[in-house]
Amino acid sequence: MFQKPAHTQPAQALEHTRAPPYTQQCPDQPGSPHMNQPGMYSLGEKSPKSNMRQAMGSWTAISCSCCQMDSIQTLAVIQLRPNIKPEAKQWLMALLEAPATIGGPHILVHPGEDNEGHILLLSATECLLLQATEHLGYAKMDCHGFMRTFCYSSRTNFLHSDKRELFLSLSEQQFLLKYVVENLKVQAETYIPGYPDCILYPGQHVVHLLQKLKIVVKFYPLHDKPRLDSLKTRWYAQLNLAPQPIDAICSYFGESVAFYFDFLGYFTVSLMSMMLLSYFCAFFQDSLDKYVVFALFNILWSTITMEFWKRHSCVQAYFWGTLQWKSYLKPCRVQFRGTLTKNAITGKWELYYPPWKRVLRVLFVTLPIVCLFLGLTVDGMLIFLYWEKWAQDQYHKSNQFFATIMLYLPSVIHTFFMEILNALYKKTAAALTEWENHKHESTFQNYLTVKVLLFRFLNCFGLLFYITFYLQDVHLLKKRLSSLLIVSQTINQVNEFLLPYLQQKLKVGFKSQVGTNPFIDEVVSDGDLPSFSGLFDDYMELFVQFGYVSLFSCVYPFTAALLILNNITEIRTDAFKLCQVFQKPFPEAADSIGIWQVAFEMLGYFSVITNCFLISISPEVQAFCEEYEVGPESFLLYMLGAEHLLIIVKVVVAFTIPDIPAWLKLKMMQVEYLSQKATGQHNEFQAFLEV
Description:
Structural class: alpha+beta
Oligomer: single chain
Radius of gyration: 29 Å
Largest sheet: 4 strands, antiparallel
Number of helices: 21
Mean pLDDT: 80
Low-confidence stretches: 1-16, 27-57
Number of strands: 14
Strand content: 5-15%
Distance between the termini: 66 Å
């Protein structure tokens, strides 16, 4: 990869790259790059609509008449290394803006302040975005009110297809542009001008390779300040309990972020029924009815909550155009390592890493390290139990103020130990999954999720299960659960919001503004913000909350109330850090919350076991068995029968509630019928049958 080929010259670069197959030639597309257009804004000048709209003075010329714009909106930024050689920057610009007539993507590119700077501003023509919309299978509203998969050739049949800002949201435009940029591939061996040792081989993704070589330092979407300010005002700036503007969040940050905040709000609202029941059960003191009612409600609540969320997410995905999302082959991860090999099926050059090597790494390195961390979790539980017993003895002996403090100290310290171990394991699991060298991002995320879910389940719930099933100490379970809810939520708020916010303020305080162009300074400032780490930790926090509520809240009914207070704050802090603390993430298309739906549903089935057992060990049930002379064997059979019956009830309830509402199924069938009719599949024989 570091030898200069003798037969390839930089001037041939355009002939050696190919854009994605959907970048067709627009109608009336002559033209050449970098033509100044009269009557348009200069770089850094604000248009009447947005401060992101910049002049086309040095933008790539728009060569088709249907894509002419009064101003160009900067959608994304490529930040190059500070000492980038001008010829390398010009080469990259030529690749990105190559017209469709020679197989290029025809992305609109602006060199920033000058051709020797390290900033590239990116945008896209309307034709390119619409063709990418069709390629990826986005559904859009047609003129008859149906959400149909968009077709570029019949775009006039779709509402607002001639008005880019109404037809495609900002998040969709940035997502589509990212997909086009990342899928620019090398078709013939070449090298990077100015860096003769950096060779590009056929089949490699240009931008990903430049990121590996540290020539491209950052690739990030740009904020639209007026839209962002409007969203902040509606979302979290006002101290009220109004519903979140989910559709506006989706339009700005994409479906993936919108689904998280939608689920966070939905889960918080669903907890209110649990909170009301806890206040109702408080009147029963410690009667048997209280435990039975709360346990049964927990079991049904977990099922109904997730089933109705499934229906709700289908409706949201339908109107966002991703319900029947077309899956596509994603490019290799930037971090993927391998040798260039010709694919035996496609005949294309691509990186290859033997699967058996990955299996060996998982079995002989990853698995032992994961078991080591699980052992540390068990050791922490045993130390906590020993210290808890010692604190109880000291309390009963002296009953002084110091002994009272010591009574709660083991729970608090063990909670801190859990959080530290969670953070350390998350970094270790990410490093191990990276070292396993997975080719695609989806595979990487699945392996990482399984590792972290397994550990978090044992670390967060293992001790509670031990107290429940082995010690059978309801009082200790209550104390441990209350400590987890209060201490761990406080730690999470500090880690997720307060520390990044203080880091940002300190960074801004020490930063001096020396730029001469306000817009470029704003672009660089957005790129200097810390990268958003994704929604994994946020979903994991909700997973743990769902477990506390569904598994153990029958012994601590105020769990729901504490979580509601936490989540009302969580919505605002998560929104604040996404809008102001972190760099804007590239939008990601999604049709649901993904694998987390399965994880929450599995907790629902675990809740049947724990709630039945918690009822069986309650003093009221034990007294009931003694009064009516129910033996241990008979009681065990009764509880096993009740557990199996409740699992059957959960399954029946889940199947009774359809995943997709009836009206939505009807809409989808109507769309399918119209699509068949439009494509000619509705032939004369089908017409004969209908008659």
